[in-house]
Design brief:
With about 600 residues, the chain is α/β, with parallel strands linked by helices. Helix 9 runs antiparallel to helix 10, helix 15 packs parallel to helix 17 and helix 20 packs across helix 21. The strands form 2 sheets. It has a 5-stranded parallel sheet with strand order 2-3-4-1-5, with helices on both faces. The radius of gyration is 39 Å and the shape is elongated. The protein is built from 26 helices and 7 strands.
Length: about 600
């Protein structure tokens, strides 16, 4: 019994010892394994740096110590550090060059910290917009915002479009010089920024908070511009929006549409068989170029007008320059037009380009209006052998073949006056449209509702500048029309001069004495153009001598020379009454007597 007990006890003891030992060994091994694993992960991922992060970000980011941060010198930190973006922004504030370089390094070379670097870059770009003193530069900064498919990066493209609209409004405002025109655009700019502040609230961070702060500065700049424009407008009771000479900007300057011209052009363009070409003829300063450049407002939506001035040296220096200019216009007008390589170098390639253009227009059911303004210069270049006469043959063939393209030749001379090429032969089928002087109703509309067709007041028609007929004095509109002979340039010239005088003298309306002084000042301001219309265009022997005789007499017998007779009537300078001639335009007679 004793032996059995001893044996049993020994066996049990051994078994118990083995069991306890194994259990302890396993527990110890697991513990060691876990500890080793934690240590290994901490080491590999550099997690032991994280307690140091508190020093760099609390109580606020300490950018001046960034160079001691592990990310700055250890490339193996695999876990993103919290609030690293704020630290990078602070570093860039302390040392902009080094800070921006570090942000770009992290974006390019440090995937684990890229998100923070992108966030920091976004914040810095937005803050640059806040510091901008010119809102037109906002576009440049917002275009650099990083983009992505997740989080705030997915919204930066939308934000760029919103900022782009603000930037474009500022650019538009910068191009306007007259306070009365700046005021509505400045108001729209301020409203657009206010709307931006409302829209930004729903965006992800940091976009929402940073852009909200930035937009407060934008709003301040916009408000200052609006207040300045309003203060000047108050000092200028009668807005100076009339402009004599040069191409009118219908958005910013007094303009009246020539509906009879637009209607006739539209009828010709929309002919089902194609338009046989147009010659838009009118004497100088009748508003031909303004008509061309405002066609887009008054033609059907499927008509694409494009204008090339033949006074532009990029168009007339050589044939290749002319073709290149047309090629560039076509690319803008028809982005769908596929043109390989450089611009066509000869007339054959140019014609093929026009054929391709016509095909695209047919597919899209569109019409293209190709206007050559001041086309007389082409005649001069043919005479100088800069352009070959074959160019006219090419244009004639295009007119006859390309039914979706309408060529329109605009000038201040009748086609029969051109002498260096047989234009009438090449354009034998072209329809002539003459630009006449203003009707009395057109003059009235110009003087009472000069900005009716400007989009600046599209949403605020009540504040659009208008002039009551009484402002021009008793019978004033009729007097202006009569003194100018309805000549568009001269109507603008007289109105422009009257506005300046009445503002200088702070009068409420025009009286007879001021009107006479305005006419005297107008012939001084318009001396160059009046000299051109009266003297320099008198090309034939005896023509200027006949006109000069009107200094001493209001009427005289028609000239015996048929050439002079025809030229003066063509130039719209004379009217006949009871077999005698007098000058059509009283302002020209005034100039002739006092300065001619």
């Amino acid at each position: 019994g004793i032996a059995v007990g001893i044996a049993y006890g020994i066996a049990v003891g051994i078994a118990y010892g083995i069991a306890v030992g194994i259990a302890f060994g396993i527990a110890y091994g697991i513990a060691v394994g876990i500890a080793f694993g934690i240590a290994a992960i901490t080491g590999l991922l550099r997690l032991y740096y994280f307690p140091l992060q508190l020093f760099f970000i609390l109580p606020k980011a300490k950018g001046k110590f960034y160079r001691y941060h592990p990310v700055a010198w250890d490339d193996l930190c695999s876990v993103p550090f919290p609030k690293l973006a704020e630290l990078l922004v602070s570093y860039a504030a302390v040392d902009p060059k080094a800070g921006n370089a570090e942000i770009e390094r992290l974006i390019t070379e440090y995937p684990s910290q890229r998100s923070a670097a992108l966030r920091a870059k976004t914040i810095l770009l937005i803050r640059q917009t806040a510091a901008a003193v010119d809102l037109s530069n906002l576009d440049r900064y917002s275009a650099q915002l990083p983009e992505g498919k997740k989080g705030f990066l997915s919204q930066t493209q939308t934000l760029h479009q919103l900022v782009h609209e603000i930037s474009q409004l500022q650019i538009r405002l910068d191009t306007i010089q007259r306070p009365i025109l700046r005021e509505p655009v400045a108001r729209v700019l301020r409203t657009e920024i206010e709307n931006f502040q409302h829209r930004i609230a729903g965006f992800y961070e940091p976009l929402a908070s940073e852009f909200r702060k930035a937009s407060k500065q934008w709003l301040r700049l916009a408000t200052e511009q609006l207040q300045l424009a309003e203060s000047i407008v108050l000092k200028e009771p009668n807005p100076q929006i009339f402009r004599a000479g040069d191409l009118l900007n219908i958005e910013q300057e007094a303009f009246v549409p020539r509906y009879n011209i637009f209607s006739e052009i539209e009828q010709q363009i929309m002919l089902s068989t194609g338009c046989p070409g147009l010659v838009l003829y009118g004497r100088r300063r009748m508003g031909k170029s303004t008509i061309l450049n405002s066609l887009y407002r008054f033609l059907p939506g499927n008509v694409i007008p494009t204008v090339l001035s033949m006074q532009n040296p990029e168009a007339f220096t050589s044939l290749s320059d002319f073709i290149q200019s047309i090629h560039s216009k076509l690319q803008i007008a028809l982005p769908e037009l596929k043109t390989a390589g450089n611009s066509p170098g000869n007339l054959a390639a140019f014609y093929r380009l026009l054929s391709d253009c016509d095909s695209v227009l047919q597919e899209q059911n569109k019409r293209l209006l190709l206007a050559l303004d001041e086309y007389e210069n082409m005649d001069m270049k043919i005479g100088a052998e800069i352009f070959p006469e074959d160019l006219l043959a090419t244009l004639r063939e295009s007119i006859q073949t390309h039914r979706c393209i309408t060529w329109i030749f605009t000038g201040s001379h009748e086609i029969t006056e051109l002498s260096h090429a047989p234009w009438t032969s090449y354009l034998v089928s072209a329809r002539t449209i003459e630009v006449p002087i203003f009707t009395a109703e057109e003059t009235r509309l110009l003087l009472t509702e000069p900005m009716k067709y400007s989009s600046l007041w599209q949403k605020d028609a009540g504040n659009r500048p208008t002039f009551d007929p009484e402002f021009w004095g008793e019978g004033g509109i009729q007097r202006i029309h009569g003194q100018a002979g309805g000549w568009p340039y001269l109507v603008q010239l007289i109105a422009e001069t009257i506005i300046d005088l009445i503002n200088d003298e702070e009068k409420q309306q025009v009286d007879g004495e001021l009107f006479e002084r305005a006419l005297d000042r107008a012939i001084v301001r318009g001396h160059t153009m009046l000299y051109e219309l009266m003297h320099r265009e008198s090309h034939f022997p005896g023509e200027w001598e006949y006109l000069s005789a009107f200094r001493a007499q209001e009427k005289q017998a028609p000239p015996d020379d048929e050439t002079v007779n025809l030229s003066l009537r063509r130039r719209l300078l004379v009217v006949e009454e009871n077999g005698e001639w007098s000058l059509r335009v009283p302002l020209m007679a005034r100039w002739l007597k006092k300065r001619g």
